[in-house]
Amino acid sequence: MCGIVGYFGKNEALPILIDGLKRLEYRGYDSSGVALLHQSKVLCFKAVGKIVELEKKISEDKSPHPPLLKHALDPEQGGAKIGIAHTRWATHGVPSEQNAHPHSDCSGKIWLVHNGIIENYQQIKKHLIEKGHIFKSETDTEALAHLIEDLYDGDLTEAVKKALKVITGTYGIVVFHADEPNKIIAAKKGSPLVVGLGENETIIASDVSAIMRYTKQAIYLDDGEMVEIDANGPRIFDSFNAEITKDISEIEWDINQAEKGGYPHFLIKEIFEQPETVMNSVRGRLVLEEGMAKLGGLDAVADKIRNIDRIIIVACGTARCAALVGEYMLEEYAGIPTEVDYAHEFRYKKQILNDKTAVIVMSQSGETADTLAAVKEAKEKGVLTLGIVNTVGSSIARETDAGIYNHVGPEISVASTKAFTSQISILSLLTLFMGRQRDMSLVTGQRIVNEIQALPDKIRKILEADGEIKKIAEKYSKATSFAFLGRKYNHPLAFEGAIKLKELSYIHAEGFAAGEMKHGPIAMIDENFPSFYFVPEDSVYEKNVSNMQEIKARAGKIIAVATEGDEKIKDIADDVIYIPKTLEMLTPILSAVPAQLFAYHMAVLKGLDVDKPRNLAKSVTVE
C-alpha cells in the first residue's frame, strides 16, 4: 500500500528518494511528500496526485529559504545527505497536502513517515491536545510525531522506543530530529521495512524495489525491531531493546526486471513474461524419473506434511482464486480434504484445527496484512504453516514454518498476472509432492511432470493470438457488464477473469460457477450482457456446452476459451479463443492468459492507467 523511502549517506538524498518513490508507485497512492535534513534545518514538500506533482513542487519552489537550506536542493553544493519520503494511500483523512506525509511535531524538528494504522491514536491525540500540542492533519500518524516530541529528552532513539510502547496497531516508520542531524531511526511492526546497505550509505524502504538500483545487500527487519543509522552504519535493536546482529540477505531481483523493456505498460510485459515465469517457478523442482516434485523449502517439514489429513489455504483477491484451483488439485490427486478461506475472515471463525492440519498462505508480496495475521493465528494454535510467496525475506516468508518461493521477479503492475499463474504452478508442484507421499502412482506423477514442463511453450502459443484477442475486445468495448463462467478447475477462473476486467477496465463483471446460472444469474442475460466462458475439453465439457446453450437461447453473446481443435464450439459461441490441450488440472494456467489479455485490451481501449488502477494498491498492508 503506502511506500516509504529513507536515506542516510554520502550522496545527494533527494534524487534517490524520488527514484525510490517512483519504484513504489505500483503499490497504490494518492499523495506524496519528502523531507530533507541539512545541517539541522528541514525542507519539506508535499503534493496530491502523482509523484510528478511533487517534482513540480520542488522544481518550482520560489519560497525564500535561507541560503543554507537552499543547499539541500543544490547538487553543486552536495545537497542534503539525509531524507525521508512517502507515498500515501488515504486511510485517516482525505488525500490532501495537509494529510500527506512526512508529518511533523509542534516544533517542526521531528519528521516522520509511517505505514500502517495506529489504532489508539485518538486517545493519544486527545491527551496531547490537553497538554498543548497543536495538530495540523486528520491522520493517525501525526499523533506519533507529537508523542515522540512529548517524550523527547535529547535522545531520539530513546524517545522513539518509549513512544512505540504506548501505541497500539501496526507501523513501519522512519524518523529524524533536526537537533540530531547525524542519525535516522526506523522501526517495524506488521508493516514491512528493509534496510539496504550500500557503500557509505544506507537506504530504508518498504519494498526492495526502491533500493535494488543502489545495492544488493539488505537486512529485513522483523516485528518489534528498530534500527538506528548513523555514519557507522545501522545498529539494530530487538523488541527488548537489546542490540542484535542480523543476517545480510542478497537481493535476487535484477533492476532490469523492474523496467518496461520496450512494452507500453508493465502489465502487458508481465503477461508476456509468463512462459519464463512459469518455467522459473518449476525449474529444478521436477524429477521425471520419479514422477515427483523436489521442494527444498519443505525438506525440514516433509515428515509433518506426510501426516497431514486436512489443509486450509488462506489468501485474498487473485491469490484466493489460485487457491481455489489448488483445492481441486489437492483433493483429486493428493486425496487430502482442502478448504479455502478468505484471509480476512480466518481469524474471526472458530477454526477446528489440530496437529494434522496444515495452513497454506499465499501472497505475492508476502506482506498482505490479513494473510500475515492468519499465519500468526495458525501458529498460536500450533498448526503447521506453509507459505507460497514471491518476495524473498518478506514477513510471511519469515513467519511461516516452511514454504516455496515463486521466483517470478518483481510484479510491478497492481493487477496480478504472472504471480497468479505461478501460484497455480506452485500448487501443482505441491499437489505432486503430497500426492506422491500418498497414493499417487508413478505413472500419474510422470504424466503431470511432463505436462507441467510443457506449459511454457503452450503459453507462448496463446500469446501469439494477442492480436485476435485485441479484436475481440474491440468488438465488446462498449459493453457495460460481463458474466464470467466456468466449471470444476475453471470455476475459479470465472472469479479471476471477472476480477481482472473489473480492476483494469472498471466494467461491471461477475464470476459464476456455470451450474449456478439457472439458479438466478441467468435473469440478467440478454443481447447486451455478454458472457466470457471457460470451456476446455475436460470432464465437464458437455455440462458446459449445455449451459452455453441456455445463454444462447436468451440472445446472450458468448466469448469462449476452448481447446484447440474444438470446431463445434463455434456453433454456439460468437467468438472463440483457443488454448492448447493439457491435463485438466493445469487448464487454469492456460485459461488465465486469454482472460488477462482481454481485460488489458478492454482497459487500454478506454484510455485507462492499466498499471495503476484507481483506488487499488499492490500490497495491502492494512486490514
From TrEMBL:
Subcellular localization: Cytoplasm
Domain Glutamine amidotransferase type-2: 2-232
Top-level taxon of origin: Bacteria
Domain SIS, chain residue ranges per copy: 301-440, 472-613
Recorded catalytic activity of this chain's protein: D-fructose 6-phosphate + L-glutamine = D-glucosamine 6-phosphate + L-glutamate
Any one of the GO CC terms: cytosol
Keyword Transmembrane helix in record: no
Principal localisation: cytoplasm
Active site: 2, 618
Keyword Cell wall biogenesis/degradation tagged: no
Enzyme Commission (EC) number: 2.6.1.16
GO molecular-function terms, A-Z: carbohydrate derivative binding; glutamine-fructose-6-phosphate transaminase (isomerizing) activity
UniProt-listed GO biological process terms: amino sugar biosynthetic process; carbohydrate metabolic process; fructose 6-phosphate metabolic process; protein N-linked glycosylation; UDP-N-acetylglucosamine metabolic process
InterPro entries in UniProt: GATase_2_dom (IPR017932), GFAT (IPR005855), GFAT_N (IPR047084), GlmS/AgaS_SIS (IPR035466), GlmS/FrlB_SIS (IPR035490), Ntn_hydrolases_N (IPR029055), SIS_dom (IPR001347), SIS_dom_sf (IPR046348)
Record-linked PROSITE patterns: GATASE_TYPE_2 (PS51278), SIS (PS51464)
Keywords of this entry: Aminotransferase, Cytoplasm, Glutamine amidotransferase, Repeat, Transferase
Subunit record text: Homodimer.
PANTHER family: GLUCOSAMINE--FRUCTOSE-6-PHOSPHATE AMINOTRANSFERASE, ISOMERIZING, GLUTAMINE--FRUCTOSE-6-PHOSPHATE TRANSAMINASE (ISOMERIZING)
UniProt function note: Catalyzes the first step in hexosamine metabolism, converting fructose-6P into glucosamine-6P using glutamine as a nitrogen source.
Name of the protein in question: Glutamine--fructose-6-phosphate aminotransferase [isomerizing]
Organism: Candidatus Falkowbacteria bacterium GW2011_GWF2_39_8
Highest classification ranks of the organism: Bacteria, Candidatus Falkowiibacteriota
